[in-house]
Amino acid sequence: MEFRETALSGMYLILPRVFEDPRGFFMETYHQAKFAAAGIPADFVQDNHSRSGRGTLRGLHYQIQHAQGKLVRCVRGEIYDVGVDLRRDSPTFGQSVGEILSEENKRQLYVPPGFAHGFCVVSEIAEVTYKCTDLYHPEYERSLLWNDPQLGLEWPIKDPTLSPKDEAGILLADAECYESSSDL
Ligand SMILES: Cc1cn([C@H]2C[C@H](O)[C@@H](COP(=O)(O)OP(=O)(O)O[C@H]3O[C@@H](C)C(=O)[C@@H](O)[C@H]3O)O2)c(=O)[nH]c1=O
């Protein structure tokens, strides 16, 4: 397992060690001690799984209380996965990092608490699983507008299929963010 910290502190791209043999393959996807040694002391309490069709965009989601860190993996197909830093005291506030995660490359992204998260589907179908460090609290959930010009995100698709909640996403300029990283 190789951990590469991205340009946003606390957000990591994780490359697996894949053991192939005549049966198929084996890989570790989460190992508490290895994650902790890499600086990700994440305690996961909820696992999610979604399936989406080509052109779907989910996000950019975050919870203003009960902020969630997410360990994201695409187990079928291919997605472009994005984290946006919403920590006001961070030197990279408002900046984002995106990575291709796919069934084939088996990469994972760890998006820490204090970030908004979203992805779009670039294959016919994509199934995404992710572990979360806090539970779902819909009353605290917010959606940041996926195409807010201030974010300058370069999504690899046009005219995405969105949920009504994400159609009505808010601009970063109007968004409730995280005032202090030490509260996360
Ligand atoms: C996120 C979530 C949704 N739900 C329900 C609520 C709703 O009826 C249905 C679909 O919810 P949503 O439209 O919010 O699903 P979705 O747009 O896939 O939301 C997810 O998007 C990605 C990008 C994330 O980062 C996740 O944290 C989560 O916000 O599932 C739960 O029961 N538990 C959950 O944890």
Structure commentary:
The structure is a single chain. The chain is mainly beta. The protein has a single domain, classed as Jelly Rolls (Sandwich). It has helices at 32-37, 164-167, and strands spanning 2-5, 12-15, 19-21, 24-26, 46-53, 57-63, 70-76, 78-85, 96-102, 108-111, 115-121, 125-132, 141-143. Strand 1 and strand 2 (12-15) form a beta hairpin. The two termini are 26 Å apart. The structure holds dtdp-4-keto-L-rhamnose. Residues 48, 50, 58-59, 61, 70, 117-119, 136, 163 line the site of dtdp-4-keto-L-rhamnose. The site of dtdp-4-keto-L-rhamnose has 11 residues, from strand 5, strand 6 and strand 11.
Keywords:
mainly beta, Jelly Rolls, 6-stranded antiparallel beta sheet, 5-stranded antiparallel beta sheet, 5% helix, globular, binds dtdp-4-keto-L-rhamnose, RmlC-like
> Looking at this structure, what is the CATH superfamily?
Jelly Rolls
Q: What is CATH's topology name?
A: Jelly Rolls
Hey, roughly how much beta strand do the residues contain?
A: 35-45%
Going across the biggest sheet, name each strand in turn. 1-2-10-7-12-5
- For the record, what CATH class applies? Mainly Beta
Note the gap between the termini. Answer: 26 Å
Cα-atom radius of gyration: 16 Å
- Proportion in helices: under 10%
Bound molecules: dtdp-4-keto-L-rhamnose
Number of domains: 1
